[in-house]
Amino acid sequence: MTCHSGMEVWMTKREKILQAAGKVFAERGYHAAGIADIARELGAGHGTFYRYFKNKEEIARSLIAQALGRVMTALADEDPSAPSCLDEYRAQVRRIGNKLFDLVIAEPQLCQILFYDAIAIDRSQADFVGRAMEASGAYTAEFIRNGQCKGFLRDDVDAQVVGLAVNGMILAGAARLLHAADPETERRPWIQVVETLMFDGLGEGRDGSG
Q: Residue 92: which residues within 8 A CB-CB, separation 6 or more?
């Protein structure tokens, strides 16, 4: 066996352990799940697990990093500076929302540990997720600043705060999809509401008097 093929086998086995652990964590919850549960789901002994991961915390961290990586990959082709008018940005927001919800529907186990279990693992992991959320807010703020600079978004609001608020709405919708009986039915109205709040507001009047 070559070094290259040996590494492929190692990575494949590691990925299978992550998949099994993600399923067990989603079904039982992180704290209730044990190594024995993961090994049983995998159909292997404890020794197999410990050849690839030191403990349950390490596998949880790997799953969280994997989930964040999936999010970044999903949004990699969305350029914050691309929209040149409000309609283009509105369409981009709709695309981003759909991409994130596609991820939740396709990989609910990864999203479960990111949205629900991550902050309960330990303080360092909670801090890591918090920093990731701050970074995602800064990323969204770049879209807002682009619109402010080009004149199609109002410039009297803090772009960083808006970025965090927008992400909060999208993440709340994604978390809701995890427990929806029909995620596809839930997706459309949630994206529409986020879009409405961002671009139209809730006021009945358009002149500030409604």
A: 78, 82, 83, 143
Domain membership of residue 179 (yes or no) is yes
Residue 16 maps to which CATH number? 1.10.10.60
Distance CA 140, CA 161 (A): 10
Q: Is the dihedral of CA 23, 28, 31, 36 positive or negative?
A: negative
Which two structure tokens, joined as six digits, stand for 147? Answer: 């619109």
Cβ–Cβ under 8 Å, residues 52 and 14? yes
Give how many domains the chain has, as a whole number: 2
Q: How far is 26 from 117, CA to CA, in rounded Å?
A: 9
32 and 134 belong to one structural domain? no
Residue 200 Cα distances to 52, 72, 158, 194, angstroms: 51, 28, 18, 10
Min mean pLDDT across 17-21, 129-133, 137-141 is at 129-133
The model's pLDDT over 74-102, given as tens digits with 9 standing for 90+, comes to 889 999 999 999 999 999 999 999 999 99
DSSP-derived secondary structure letter, 145? H
Please check whether residues 196 and 93 belong to one and the same domain: yes
pTM over 0.70: yes
- Asked if the model's pLDDT at residue 125 lies above 50, the reply is yes
Query: What is the identity of the amino acid at 187?
Result: R
Q: Are residues 104 and 155 in the same domain?
A: yes
Estimate to the nearest angstrom the gap between the alpha carbon of 75 and the chain centroid: 10
